[in-house]
Specification:
The complex is a heterodimer of chains A (about 350) and B (about 350).
Chain A (H helix, E strand, L loop, with lengths): L1 E3 H15 L3 E5 L15 H5 L4 E3 L4 H13 L3 E5 L3 H4 L3 H8 L2 H4 L9 E5 L15 H5 L5 E4 L3 H13 L4 E5 L7 E4 L5 E5 L2 E4 L19 E4 L4 E5 L3 H14 L4 E5 L2 E3 L3 H11 L2 E5 L7 H12 L9 E4 L9 H7 L3 H11 L3
Parallel strand pairs in A: 2-3, 2-4, 4-5, 5-7, 6-7, 12-13, 12-15, 15-16
Antiparallel strand pairs in A: 1-8, 6-14, 8-9, 9-10, 11-13
Helix pairs in contact in A: 1-8, 3-5, 9-13, 10-11
Chain B lengths: L20 H26 L14 H10 L5 E5 L3 H6 L4 H8 L23 E5 L5 H15 L5 E6 L6 H12 L4 E7 L2 E2 L2 E2 L20 E5 L3 H19 L2 E6 L17 H8 L3 H11 L5 H24 L24
The chains are: A alpha/beta (about 350), B alpha/beta (about 350).
The complex binds thiamine diphosphate and magnesium ion.
Thiamine diphosphate (TPP) sits at the interface of chains B and A.
Chain lengths: ~350, ~350
């Protein structure tokens, strides 16, 4: 099996749309243009203009229309061209989608999926390079998924569409082209930019209606010396670092959170109990970030197992400028991860 | 002469006053400078010297030229990411613009903004906004400050046809009219927002009509020649400087290239593109200047040669300039000099 993240997301949406008439997709350029990043390619042709809907550039408006439709019996998938533009729609996501159930004392659910790419993608500068996992993960009422593993992203997307709560899905512009290569024997590897990295995880049987539970992390690489917790495109950075570390005799266990909220603390803590060391690799800014949350949970529940303080690798505590030298300095890299791992190993 | 682009409307203005030879030549020079700058930009992008999102202004040059000639030095401009031409027309040197595209420390914002974010306090150029429509209220606020300070400057607030569908427009238009702010709204209607044509985004296809619900004086303008742009802006500016509040111009134009460098623009027909290429604002102005004997072919050649040298030098300057030092990451985030960044 070869499956790209881009194709996986489209297959998930299409399969759910075939199952359930109430599911529809709307957003900028999703229909006639086949999606700004071609995630919805061919969907207009299959499902028609009633269900694959091009919107004007009006994020606040169409997100709100999605919320209303969800309250009234439909299951909208709202695509943001990138999550940076969803900031305009935060009113509808945070003040409405997240709160409708509570405000109506259970009378109105809001089964909606908000999705799009999150995170930096090279030299796109300040306004186009942000991650929103910690912003939205902070909000009760929302579930937040952030995963680039093609098979799991597909399974999670399907679960999210069937879920009765609002779910925000963060994808990756850079890694839409990431491919999963899997053998019938059950070996799986990521292939990206002419590089292949073996990775662990489940694989669906042929033709299986495969879903992945929200709220469960995945171990992508087993190791005994240090745990690296990460998510979204930093999984690639972490796996590259882990391969390098192995050459130095350091076996890192790499955990892909997959879901940000609710977070799978158990998987993290079990791993730390085994390795006794933790590095968190997180593209969000350091303050009140995903790494902060993971570090808190580990010191609270696995304090006695830690042989070193938790270290994190985040993006720099600044806006991201355009120049390549500044992008390199800003983003977590395999080198920075290796350095962090060595520091918790006292090497 | 070029025609009004779609559905010609009777011109509301007076007959075009004859403009001086200097004015015509300066329009031509500005437009040719922008065209050559953008052609060089595309070339450098192909060579991967310029990265990220890059939106060129080719086809829209007459708007920048006609706008700048109709403004006064203290006027401000706020626009979107398709801004290279606007910035150049307002006087930011091409070498600083090119160095910015290359991400170099000598760029107009030290390599920190790139194609979408040029700024210049000196030229009252307030950016370069990458969030569609965000500059509409911001430009309105810049105008608010001019009024507050008691100047006779205005702020030109420019946005695309796609941006006209953002809710921010309605809120800003309303407050600007209520408070009689010195703001000139310009919609550069190049007929597409990425792959979406104007007709596909609303019932209201004439974007100048959006001003009507606020009783804002609004007009449609041909953006393919600098005269009509200049004439309309001069008239609008006089209205605004007289303290009568905002004015809104929908300037019709066309972008000859894709939305950004990576867009093959397959959503429009070859015939449509050819139709608009036939009214190329730069080429048609050149032809008219010679045909109407405003300038000799030699005078035009002299300008072209000079600009080509300028753009070559701009590219060389960009090429030879250094990238910003990585420590620049921690500058310009706060005015406060010793801000305690989290580094661990
Ligand atoms: C809020 C927001 N939504 C979406 C985008 C992505 N985007 C960038 S440009 C663009 C089209 C804008 O078209 P228009 O306003 O007509 O300007 P033009 O590009 O034609 O100059 C879109 C959708 C964005 N940058 N910001
Ligand atoms: Mg446009």
């Amino acid at each position: 099996m070869n499956l790209s993240l881009r194709d996986a997301l489209r297959e998930a949406m299409s399969e759910e749309m075939r199952r359930d008439e109430s599911v529809f997709l709307m957003g900028e350029e999703v229909a006639e243009y086949n999606g700004a990043y071609k995630v919805s390619k061919g969907m207009l042709e299959e499902f028609g203009a009633k269900r694959i809907i091009d919107t004007p550039i009006a994020e606040l408006g169409f997100a709100g229309i999605g919320v209303g439709a969800a309250m009234n019996g439909l299951r909208p998938i709202v695509e943001f061209m990138t999550w940076n533009f969803a900031v305009l729609a935060f009113d509808q996501i945070v003040n409405n989608a997240a709160k409708t159930l509570s405000q109506s004392a259970g009378d109105f659910a809001c089964p909606i999926v908000f999705r799009g790419p999150s995170g930096s993608a090279g030299q796109l500068a300040q306004q186009h390079s942000q991650t929103f996992e910690s912003w939205l993960g902070n909000t009760p009422g929302l579930k937040v998924i952030s995963c680039i593993d093609p098979v799991d992203a597909k399974g999670l997307m399907k679960t999210a569409i069937r879920d009765n709560d609002p779910v925000c899905i963060m994808e990756s512009e850079v890694f839409y082209a990431l491919e999963m290569n899997a053998t019938p024997g059950g070996d799986r590897a990521y292939s990206f930019a002419h590089t292949q990295i073996p990775t662990l995880g489940d694989l669906p049987a042929d033709g299986e209606d495969y879903t992945v539970d929200i709220g469960k992390a995945a171990v992508r690489r087993e190791g005994t010396d240090v745990t690296i917790v990460t998510y979204n495109k930093m999984i690639w950075t972490a796996l590259v670092a882990a391969q390098e570390l192995a050459k130095d005799g350091i076996q890192a266990e790499v955990i892909d959170l997959r879901t940000i909220r609710p977070m799978d603390y158990d998987t993290i803590i079990r791993s730390v109990q085994k390795t006794n060391r933790l590095v968190v690799v997180d593209e969000s800014w350091p303050f009140a970030s995903i790494s902060t949350e993971v570090a808190y949970a580990v010191q609270r529940h696995a304090f006695d197992y830690l042989d070193a303080p938790v270290v994190r690798v985040n993006s720099a505590d600044t806006s991201l400028p355009y120049a390549p030298t500044l992008v390199d300095a800003w983003l977590p890299s395999p080198e920075k991860v290796i350095q962090a791992v060595k520091s918790v190993m006292y090497r | 002469m070029t025609q009004v682009l779609t559905k010609p409307k009777a011109s509301k203005g007076k007959k075009s006053p004859g403009y001086s030879k200097d004015m015509y030549l300066s329009w031509f020079e500005t437009m040719f400078r922008i065209r050559k700058f953008e052609e060089r930009t595309l070339m450098a992008y192909g060579q991967q010297k310029i990265r990220g999102f890059c939106h060129v202004y080719i086809g829209q040059e007459a708007i920048a030229a006609g706008m700048t000639s109709a403004l006064q030095a203290g006027d401000a401009v706020a626009t979107a990411y398709r801004q290279h031409g606007t910035a150049i027309s307002r006087g930011i040197p091409t070498r600083e613009c090119m160095a910015e595209l290359y991400g170099k420390a000598t760029g107009c914002v030290k390599g920190k903004g790139g194609s979408m974010h040029f700024f210049s306090r000196e030229h009252k150029f307030f950016g370069g906004n990458g969030i569609v429509g965000a500059q509409i209220p911001i430009g309105t606020g810049i105008a608010f400050a001019e009024k507050y300070k008691g100047t006779d400057n205005l702020c030109v607030t420019m946005f695309g046809d796609g941006a006209a569908r953002q809710g921010a427009l309605y809120e800003a238009f309303n407050m600007a009219m209520t408070w009689k702010l010195p703001v000139l709204y310009i919609c550069e209607n190049n007929q597409y927002a990425m792959g979406t044509s104007v007709e596909r985004t609303s019932n209201v296809r004439d974007l100048y009509k959006l001003g009507a619900s606020f009783d804002m004086p609004s007009e449609e303008v041909n953006g393919m020649n600098p005269e009509s742009v200049h004439e309309a802006i001069e008239r609008a500016a006089a209205h605004i400087r007289a303290g009568k509040g905002p004015y809104y111009l929908e300037i019709k134009t066309y972008r000859y290239k894709g939305h950004s460098v990576s867009d093959p623009a397959t959503y429009r027909t070859k015939e449509e593109l050819k139709n608009y290429m036939d009214m190329d604002p730069v080429k048609s102005l050149e032809a008219r200047l010679i045909a109407d004997q405003v300038a000799s072919p030699e005078e035009i050649e002299e300008i072209k040669d000079r600009i080509k040298v300028e753009i070559d030098e701009a590219a060389q300057f960009a090429e030879e300039s250094p990238f910003p030092d990585p420590s620049e990451l921690f500058t310009d985030n706060y005015m406060e000099p010793n801000y305690p960044f989290i580094t661990d």
